[in-house]
What does this fold into?
Amino acid sequence: MHPLLTKPELVSILLQQLENIKNHCDEYDSGNETIIHQIAEKIVLIFHNSDHSKALLNQLKLSHVPMYCSSEKYNSKNLTNFIGLLKLEHQKGKGWNYSSKLDSSVLITVSQENWWNNKKVIIDSDGIAFTRGKIIKSLAGLDPLVLNTSGWTVKNAQGNKSTINPIPETVRQIAFELLESFRNVDLNKESKLHCKYNND
It folds into this structure.
């Protein structure tokens, strides 16, 4: 991101990214799973700091804004795989599967650091932990995602077992949390960035 952008320009860019994520989520909900990668790319621009660019939230000094979290708490005594952002449900004619919750009533607030980097939202079959940041960055092409789902199986309507891929629905739930977190935030008011380049 260009370092000389003004506060109103940065706010406009962030609002546009959030709108893009919402539109991509609508497309995903309509059956286009491939759009998940584009959702991840938009989320990376908002949250990820690299050697070459600062996250939009950092540029706008919005890192104090709390995030909504819907993840279940991981119990280390539980020997089964952990998928914290999804619910297991039975769909008529399809059988069992994991799906995003998309339920605002289960949301609690956490810090951005906890939400992005610290909270484990998936533990795979090898016991490897995955945070939202790890999942989103990998899908956006910054890191390869190696997820062992050999222990994750669900039964379809005919009783046949298949291995599930929790990533698309997990990204959908992450996007839901993000959009809910900023739904009622006045970005101009909350931003600690001083408005430079004014002519007054």
Remarks:
- The mean pLDDT is 89.
- Residues 117 and 134 are 8 Å apart (CA to CA).
- The beta strands are 67-69, 82-83, 86-91, 95-100, 108-110, 120-123, 129-131, 153-155, 161-163.
